Amino acid sequence: MTPSIPDKNSLPLYGCITGIVLPVDTFDLAAGIALRRGIFEIFSAPMLAFKEAPPGSHTPAPWVAVHGGFNFKSRTELVIEDLSALEGFAPFQAAWLIAVLLRLRVETPVRIAVVANIPLAMLPEKNNNWALALEASPHHIGIFRKLRQDITIEDMKWLAETLPLAGRFCLEERFMRALSIFDESMWSGSVEKATVLIWTALEILFDLGGEQSKTKAICSSLSEYVALDAQDRDRAYNVIRELYEKRGRIVHAGREIAAKDFAQSFALARTTFLNVLDRAELPRTRTRVLQ
Predict the structure, then answer these.
(1) Strand 149-150 to strand 20-21: parallel, antiparallel, or no bridges (unpaired)?
(2) How much is the mean pLDDT over the chain?
(3) Percent residues over pLDDT 70 in the chain
(4) Of 1, 89, 175, 285, which one's alpha carbon is 20 to 30 angstroms from that of 163?
(5) Please, are residues 209 and 234 in contact by the beta-carbon 8 Å criterion?
């Protein structure tokens, strides 16, 4: 009998993470939250059957595999057994936040493809267990230099130090909406949709929804977060203005966007979120004078 799948927000929760290889066997991110080495291969092949399934039963053989499935290779397991370090977070939300931070830090296609209620290596051996697809979209858009990367101890320390801060920031609605929309851009299916979502996330992050001169406002706000100095800020302002205008052509004229322009928009947004976290300070809410 197939076990019923309980609420994925119950503890403990285990998941496999693609795109990274740990420098050590186990690394504790917080009390009750860790990453550890493992080998997990996720694959799917559509099957063609030739008989109708009886009501309440499985499709009878024979079956033929159809080309065009997907596969994910994971070398890292996420362990969430306690959430005292992320107060207010459900287990699957905590898993998502860890994946988001890794996606900001690492230029590989990081995703939590599967979660389970027991350690993944024990799934074939134990009864009353379940495994559930989580980030299983066939699309993943971003800047990727390789499929899998050996991350460093410095990367792991950054993740451990940033996780509680990101958790606190996510309790602020504006930051949570901005971060989740930016992350959603990676699963959107086209670079045009992704570009629109990226700039929407930045508008929300800098509280620009009600600005009349939105182009000027977003150029000023964003250049402050990505530039290294005053001279670099002037250059960044002009680049941001050009990219934001190209975003407008997608929205208002249905234009396509060049891969390099999408990549530059993505890189600007990722750098901005990283700098917000590294500064440990949310962008100020803009004050407007009503006429």
Answers:
(1) parallel
(2) 91
(3) 95
(4) 285
(5) no
